[in-house]
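Hi L., both proteins are below.
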Amino acid sequence: MNGFLIFWDSKASEMEIHIKNVNAEFKWQDYKKNTWHSICATWDSISGLVQLWFNGTPSVKKYVGSGSNISGSIIILLGQEQDSHGGGFDKNQSFTGMVSDVHMWDFVLSLCEIQRYVDDLNFTPGNVLNWRALEFDITDRVLIENKQMTCH
Protein backbone atom coordinates (compact mmCIF):
# COMPACT_ATOMS: atom_id res chain seq x y z
CA MET A 1 0.00 0.00 0.00
CA ASN A 2 1.24 3.48 -0.86
CA GLY A 3 0.53 5.92 1.95
CA PHE A 4 1.25 8.94 -0.26
CA LEU A 5 2.14 8.72 -3.95
CA ILE A 6 2.49 11.30 -6.71
CA PHE A 7 2.42 9.50 -10.04
CA TRP A 8 2.45 10.63 -13.68
CA ASP A 9 0.17 8.31 -15.67
CA SER A 10 1.50 8.72 -19.22
CA LYS A 11 -1.27 6.58 -20.74
CA ALA A 12 -4.01 8.82 -19.32
CA SER A 13 -1.88 12.01 -19.49
CA GLU A 14 -2.67 12.88 -15.90
CA MET A 15 -0.94 13.45 -12.59
CA GLU A 16 -2.35 11.26 -9.83
CA ILE A 17 -2.11 11.72 -6.10
CA HIS A 18 -2.75 8.53 -4.13
CA ILE A 19 -3.49 8.68 -0.41
CA LYS A 20 -3.65 5.23 1.14
CA ASN A 21 -4.56 3.76 -2.27
CA VAL A 22 -7.39 6.24 -2.94
CA ASN A 23 -6.47 8.54 -5.79
CA ALA A 24 -7.37 11.90 -7.26
CA GLU A 25 -6.64 12.59 -10.93
CA PHE A 26 -5.49 15.94 -12.32
CA LYS A 27 -5.64 16.20 -16.12
CA TRP A 28 -4.96 19.88 -16.78
CA GLN A 29 -1.16 19.93 -16.53
CA ASP A 30 1.08 20.81 -19.44
CA TYR A 31 3.61 18.12 -18.53
CA LYS A 32 6.54 17.91 -20.94
CA LYS A 33 9.45 15.50 -20.78
CA ASN A 34 12.97 16.93 -20.43
CA THR A 35 11.57 20.12 -18.90
CA TRP A 36 11.86 21.22 -15.28
CA HIS A 37 8.51 21.25 -13.50
CA SER A 38 7.58 22.28 -9.99
CA ILE A 39 5.13 19.83 -8.44
CA CYS A 40 3.65 20.22 -4.97
CA ALA A 41 0.88 18.10 -3.50
CA THR A 42 -0.98 18.75 -0.27
CA TRP A 43 -3.30 16.52 1.73
CA ASP A 44 -5.18 17.58 4.83
CA SER A 45 -6.02 14.43 6.81
CA ILE A 46 -8.78 16.23 8.73
CA SER A 47 -10.74 17.55 5.72
CA GLY A 48 -9.58 14.79 3.36
CA LEU A 49 -8.81 17.34 0.65
CA VAL A 50 -5.88 16.93 -1.72
CA GLN A 51 -4.53 19.61 -4.05
CA LEU A 52 -1.85 19.66 -6.73
CA TRP A 53 0.29 22.69 -7.52
CA PHE A 54 1.85 22.36 -10.97
CA ASN A 55 4.45 24.99 -11.98
CA GLY A 56 3.04 27.35 -9.35
CA THR A 57 -0.61 27.01 -10.38
CA PRO A 58 -3.01 25.37 -7.88
CA SER A 59 -5.62 22.84 -8.98
CA VAL A 60 -9.08 22.49 -7.54
CA LYS A 61 -9.15 20.56 -4.28
CA LYS A 62 -10.46 16.99 -4.41
CA TYR A 63 -11.68 14.72 -1.63
CA VAL A 64 -9.78 11.45 -1.10
CA GLY A 65 -10.60 10.54 2.50
CA SER A 66 -10.31 11.95 5.99
CA GLY A 67 -10.07 10.92 9.58
CA SER A 68 -6.73 9.14 9.70
CA ASN A 69 -3.06 9.80 9.29
CA ILE A 70 -0.41 7.81 7.44
CA SER A 71 1.03 5.50 10.07
CA GLY A 72 3.18 2.43 10.47
CA SER A 73 6.70 1.81 9.21
CA ILE A 74 7.57 4.68 6.86
CA ILE A 75 9.62 4.16 3.69
CA ILE A 76 10.13 7.14 1.39
CA LEU A 77 10.87 6.25 -2.23
CA LEU A 78 11.74 8.76 -4.92
CA GLY A 79 11.41 7.80 -8.56
CA GLN A 80 9.88 4.36 -8.14
CA GLU A 81 6.36 3.13 -7.38
CA GLN A 82 6.15 0.12 -5.06
CA ASP A 83 3.70 -2.77 -5.33
CA SER A 84 4.38 -3.94 -1.77
CA HIS A 85 5.79 -2.19 1.29
CA GLY A 86 9.42 -1.46 0.36
CA GLY A 87 9.44 -3.78 -2.64
CA GLY A 88 7.60 -5.20 -5.62
CA PHE A 89 9.28 -2.79 -8.02
CA ASP A 90 8.43 -2.74 -11.71
CA LYS A 91 11.09 -1.09 -13.90
CA ASN A 92 8.29 0.14 -16.18
CA GLN A 93 6.99 2.22 -13.25
CA SER A 94 10.29 3.93 -12.53
CA PHE A 95 10.90 7.61 -13.10
CA THR A 96 13.38 8.63 -15.78
CA GLY A 97 14.54 12.21 -15.53
CA MET A 98 15.91 14.66 -13.01
CA VAL A 99 14.71 15.25 -9.45
CA SER A 100 15.73 18.11 -7.19
CA ASP A 101 14.63 19.97 -4.07
CA VAL A 102 12.21 17.39 -2.67
CA HIS A 103 10.76 18.33 0.70
CA MET A 104 7.98 16.77 2.78
CA TRP A 105 6.16 18.21 5.78
CA ASP A 106 3.76 16.65 8.26
CA PHE A 107 1.43 19.64 7.95
CA VAL A 108 -0.19 21.49 5.05
CA LEU A 109 1.77 24.54 3.93
CA SER A 110 0.07 27.90 3.55
CA LEU A 111 -0.47 29.28 0.06
CA CYS A 112 2.31 31.83 0.65
CA GLU A 113 4.75 29.15 1.84
CA ILE A 114 4.07 27.06 -1.27
CA GLN A 115 4.64 30.10 -3.48
CA ARG A 116 7.96 30.88 -1.71
CA TYR A 117 9.02 27.27 -2.36
CA VAL A 118 7.97 27.41 -6.04
CA ASP A 119 9.82 30.71 -6.51
CA ASP A 120 12.96 29.23 -4.85
CA LEU A 121 12.85 31.88 -2.14
CA ASN A 122 13.44 31.49 1.58
CA PHE A 123 11.09 28.73 2.82
CA THR A 124 10.95 26.34 5.75
CA PRO A 125 12.67 23.07 4.75
CA GLY A 126 10.65 19.88 5.10
CA ASN A 127 10.48 18.43 8.61
CA VAL A 128 9.88 14.87 7.30
CA LEU A 129 12.14 15.00 4.23
CA ASN A 130 14.66 17.81 3.71
CA TRP A 131 16.51 17.65 0.37
CA ARG A 132 19.50 19.54 1.75
CA ALA A 133 19.99 17.05 4.61
CA LEU A 134 18.94 13.88 2.80
CA GLU A 135 20.57 10.54 3.57
CA PHE A 136 19.84 8.06 0.81
CA ASP A 137 20.71 4.77 -0.86
CA ILE A 138 21.27 4.50 -4.61
CA THR A 139 19.99 1.47 -6.51
CA ASP A 140 21.09 0.71 -10.08
CA ARG A 141 22.00 3.54 -12.47
CA VAL A 142 21.63 6.91 -10.76
CA LEU A 143 23.75 9.95 -11.56
CA ILE A 144 24.21 12.55 -8.83
CA GLU A 145 25.01 16.07 -10.02
CA ASN A 146 25.00 19.49 -8.42
CA LYS A 147 21.92 21.48 -9.30
CA GLN A 148 22.40 23.57 -12.43
CA MET A 149 21.10 27.11 -12.29
CA THR A 150 19.01 28.34 -15.19
CA CYS A 151 20.38 31.45 -16.85
CA HIS A 152 17.91 33.91 -18.38
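That was the first. Here is the second:
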Amino acid sequence: MVLSTAQLPLSAVTGCWNLFRMQVWCFLLLVLRVAEGCTLEDHRETKQINAYTGGSVLLPCHCTDLHSKPERLIWEKYNTTNNTWEEISSKNDQSTNKLRLVNGHSPGNLSLLISHLTTEDGGVYRCNLEMKEHRFIFLNITAGGCVLEKSTPQSVTAHTGGSVLLPCYCTDLYTTPEEFSWKKYNMDRNTWEEISSESGQYRNRVQLVNDHSPGNLSLLISHLTEEDGGDYDCN
Protein backbone atom coordinates (compact mmCIF):
# COMPACT_ATOMS: atom_id res chain seq x y z
CA MET A 1 0.00 0.00 0.00
CA VAL A 2 1.30 3.46 -0.91
CA LEU A 3 0.47 6.28 1.47
CA SER A 4 1.06 9.85 0.31
CA THR A 5 1.82 12.71 2.68
CA ALA A 6 -1.50 14.16 1.74
CA GLN A 7 -3.17 11.24 3.51
CA LEU A 8 -1.12 11.71 6.70
CA PRO A 9 -2.45 13.73 9.60
CA LEU A 10 -0.91 17.20 9.93
CA SER A 11 0.63 16.33 13.30
CA ALA A 12 2.45 13.32 11.78
CA VAL A 13 3.85 15.38 8.92
CA THR A 14 5.01 18.07 11.34
CA GLY A 15 6.64 15.48 13.61
CA CYS A 16 8.49 13.86 10.71
CA TRP A 17 9.72 17.24 9.48
CA ASN A 18 10.97 18.20 12.95
CA LEU A 19 12.78 14.86 13.28
CA PHE A 20 14.40 15.30 9.85
CA ARG A 21 15.42 18.86 10.67
CA MET A 22 16.95 17.69 13.99
CA GLN A 23 18.95 14.98 12.20
CA VAL A 24 20.25 17.50 9.66
CA TRP A 25 21.17 19.92 12.46
CA CYS A 26 23.02 17.19 14.38
CA PHE A 27 24.87 16.20 11.21
CA LEU A 28 25.91 19.79 10.54
CA LEU A 29 26.99 20.20 14.16
CA LEU A 30 29.11 17.07 13.90
CA VAL A 31 30.76 18.25 10.68
CA LEU A 32 31.54 21.65 12.21
CA ARG A 33 32.91 19.97 15.32
CA VAL A 34 35.30 17.82 13.31
CA ALA A 35 36.33 20.71 11.07
CA GLU A 36 37.19 22.88 14.07
CA GLY A 37 40.15 20.73 15.15
CA CYS A 38 42.36 22.06 17.92
CA THR A 39 41.79 25.56 19.24
CA LEU A 40 44.55 26.64 21.59
CA GLU A 41 43.56 27.52 25.14
CA ASP A 42 44.79 30.96 26.29
CA HIS A 43 45.85 31.89 22.75
CA ARG A 44 48.50 34.66 22.76
CA GLU A 45 48.58 34.65 26.58
CA THR A 46 51.93 34.69 28.46
CA LYS A 47 52.48 32.65 31.62
CA GLN A 48 55.46 32.96 33.98
CA ILE A 49 56.79 29.83 35.70
CA ASN A 50 59.54 29.60 38.30
CA ALA A 51 61.66 26.46 38.72
CA TYR A 52 64.98 25.34 40.14
CA THR A 53 68.16 23.82 38.74
CA GLY A 54 68.25 20.04 38.89
CA GLY A 55 64.47 19.78 39.02
CA SER A 56 61.71 19.40 36.45
CA VAL A 57 59.06 21.75 35.11
CA LEU A 58 55.89 21.36 33.06
CA LEU A 59 55.15 23.99 30.41
CA PRO A 60 51.35 23.86 29.98
CA CYS A 61 49.68 23.99 26.57
CA HIS A 62 46.25 22.56 25.72
CA CYS A 63 43.59 22.46 23.07
CA THR A 64 40.24 23.68 24.40
CA ASP A 65 39.03 20.15 23.61
CA LEU A 66 41.55 17.65 24.99
CA HIS A 67 40.33 15.04 22.49
CA SER A 68 41.23 17.19 19.49
CA LYS A 69 44.45 16.29 17.74
CA PRO A 70 46.39 19.14 16.10
CA GLU A 71 47.81 18.52 12.65
CA ARG A 72 51.09 20.20 13.55
CA LEU A 73 52.63 21.35 16.83
CA ILE A 74 56.03 22.95 17.43
CA TRP A 75 57.64 23.91 20.72
CA GLU A 76 60.13 26.73 20.29
CA LYS A 77 62.53 28.73 22.46
CA TYR A 78 63.58 32.29 21.75
CA ASN A 79 67.29 32.72 21.06
CA THR A 80 68.20 36.15 22.41
CA THR A 81 71.58 36.07 20.65
CA ASN A 82 70.16 35.55 17.16
CA ASN A 83 66.75 37.10 17.89
CA THR A 84 65.04 34.06 16.38
CA TRP A 85 62.69 31.28 17.47
CA GLU A 86 64.39 27.87 17.47
CA GLU A 87 62.49 24.59 17.43
CA ILE A 88 63.10 22.20 20.31
CA SER A 89 62.23 18.54 20.00
CA SER A 90 62.32 15.43 22.20
CA LYS A 91 63.40 13.46 19.12
CA ASN A 92 66.71 15.33 19.14
CA ASP A 93 67.18 14.72 22.85
CA GLN A 94 66.96 10.93 23.14
CA SER A 95 70.35 10.66 24.86
CA THR A 96 69.39 12.66 27.97
CA ASN A 97 65.57 12.32 27.99
CA LYS A 98 65.42 15.99 28.96
CA LEU A 99 62.31 16.82 26.91
CA ARG A 100 59.03 14.91 26.78
CA LEU A 101 55.46 15.58 25.71
CA VAL A 102 53.04 14.39 28.38
CA ASN A 103 49.80 14.04 26.43
CA GLY A 104 49.12 10.49 27.66
CA HIS A 105 45.65 9.53 26.40
CA SER A 106 44.67 13.13 25.64
CA PRO A 107 45.93 14.18 22.18
CA GLY A 108 44.89 17.76 22.93
CA ASN A 109 47.34 18.01 25.84
CA LEU A 110 50.43 19.56 24.25
CA SER A 111 52.33 20.26 27.49
CA LEU A 112 56.12 19.90 27.54
CA LEU A 113 58.05 18.38 30.45
CA ILE A 114 61.66 19.56 30.87
CA SER A 115 63.85 17.61 33.31
CA HIS A 116 67.35 18.06 34.75
CA LEU A 117 66.97 21.82 34.61
CA THR A 118 69.96 24.12 34.26
CA THR A 119 70.15 27.91 34.27
CA GLU A 120 70.50 27.76 30.46
CA ASP A 121 66.94 26.40 30.24
CA GLY A 122 65.55 29.74 31.37
CA GLY A 123 63.93 31.98 28.76
CA VAL A 124 60.83 32.42 26.64
CA TYR A 125 59.09 29.37 25.15
CA ARG A 126 56.31 29.22 22.58
CA CYS A 127 53.76 26.49 21.99
CA ASN A 128 53.16 26.99 18.26
CA LEU A 129 50.00 25.39 16.86
CA GLU A 130 49.99 24.95 13.08
CA MET A 131 51.80 28.31 12.73
CA LYS A 132 48.51 30.06 13.56
CA GLU A 133 48.01 30.08 17.34
CA HIS A 134 50.61 30.57 20.07
CA ARG A 135 50.98 30.25 23.82
CA PHE A 136 53.98 31.96 25.43
CA ILE A 137 55.73 30.87 28.63
CA PHE A 138 58.49 32.74 30.43
CA LEU A 139 60.57 30.23 32.41
CA ASN A 140 62.68 31.60 35.25
CA ILE A 141 65.35 29.22 36.64
CA THR A 142 66.85 29.71 40.10
CA ALA A 143 69.99 27.88 41.15
CA GLY A 144 69.65 25.39 43.99
CA GLY A 145 66.03 24.49 44.53
CA CYS A 146 66.02 22.20 47.55
CA VAL A 147 64.30 23.52 50.66
CA LEU A 148 64.43 20.98 53.46
CA GLU A 149 61.10 19.85 54.84
CA LYS A 150 60.78 21.38 58.28
CA SER A 151 60.41 18.96 61.15
CA THR A 152 61.22 18.76 64.82
CA PRO A 153 64.16 16.59 65.89
CA GLN A 154 63.20 12.93 65.63
CA SER A 155 64.13 10.07 67.90
CA VAL A 156 64.82 6.83 66.03
CA THR A 157 65.31 3.50 67.79
CA ALA A 158 67.26 0.63 66.22
CA HIS A 159 69.19 -2.49 67.22
CA THR A 160 72.83 -3.50 66.85
CA GLY A 161 73.42 -5.61 63.77
CA GLY A 162 70.36 -4.19 62.04
CA SER A 163 69.71 -1.21 59.77
CA VAL A 164 68.07 2.18 60.21
CA LEU A 165 66.79 4.88 57.86
CA LEU A 166 67.36 8.50 58.87
CA PRO A 167 64.70 10.56 57.02
CA CYS A 168 65.46 13.83 55.24
CA TYR A 169 63.56 15.37 52.29
CA CYS A 170 63.35 18.41 50.08
CA THR A 171 59.85 19.89 50.06
CA ASP A 172 59.85 19.10 46.32
CA LEU A 173 61.12 15.55 45.79
CA TYR A 174 62.04 16.34 42.18
CA THR A 175 64.56 19.04 43.04
CA THR A 176 68.23 18.21 43.32
CA PRO A 177 70.23 20.09 45.98
CA GLU A 178 73.42 21.73 44.78
CA GLU A 179 75.22 20.39 47.84
CA PHE A 180 74.28 18.64 51.07
CA SER A 181 75.85 16.45 53.72
CA TRP A 182 75.04 14.17 56.64
CA LYS A 183 76.94 14.87 59.86
CA LYS A 184 77.18 13.27 63.28
CA TYR A 185 77.94 15.12 66.49
CA ASN A 186 81.21 14.09 68.15
CA MET A 187 80.72 14.62 71.87
CA ASP A 188 84.40 14.17 72.66
CA ARG A 189 85.51 16.90 70.28
CA ASN A 190 82.33 18.95 70.57
CA THR A 191 82.09 19.21 66.75
CA TRP A 192 79.92 18.02 63.86
CA GLU A 193 81.76 15.52 61.64
CA GLU A 194 80.73 14.66 58.08
CA ILE A 195 79.73 11.07 57.38
CA SER A 196 81.35 9.30 54.43
CA SER A 197 80.94 5.77 53.08
CA GLU A 198 84.52 5.93 51.83
CA SER A 199 86.30 6.12 55.16
CA GLY A 200 85.98 6.03 58.94
CA GLN A 201 83.55 3.98 60.98
CA TYR A 202 80.87 4.18 58.25
CA ARG A 203 82.93 2.68 55.43
CA ASN A 204 80.60 0.70 53.11
CA ARG A 205 77.79 0.94 55.66
CA VAL A 206 75.90 4.06 54.60
CA GLN A 207 74.02 4.94 51.41
CA LEU A 208 71.39 7.33 50.12
CA VAL A 209 68.06 5.77 49.16
CA ASN A 210 66.72 8.44 46.81
CA ASP A 211 65.99 6.02 43.91
CA HIS A 212 64.20 8.18 41.31
CA SER A 213 63.51 11.08 43.69
CA PRO A 214 66.57 13.36 43.88
CA GLY A 215 64.93 15.33 46.69
CA ASN A 216 64.90 12.29 48.98
CA LEU A 217 68.09 12.69 51.02
CA SER A 218 67.40 9.93 53.55
CA LEU A 219 70.40 8.00 54.85
CA LEU A 220 70.46 4.23 55.34
CA ILE A 221 72.95 2.88 57.91
CA SER A 222 73.53 -0.88 57.96
CA HIS A 223 75.31 -3.29 60.35
CA LEU A 224 74.64 -0.99 63.28
CA THR A 225 76.98 -0.83 66.26
CA GLU A 226 76.60 0.89 69.63
CA GLU A 227 78.98 3.60 68.39
CA ASP A 228 76.43 4.60 65.75
CA GLY A 229 74.12 6.03 68.38
CA GLY A 230 74.03 9.80 68.72
CA ASP A 231 72.83 13.00 67.04
CA TYR A 232 72.75 13.28 63.24
CA ASP A 233 72.16 16.31 61.04
CA CYS A 234 71.03 16.51 57.42
CA ASN A 235 72.35 19.82 56.13
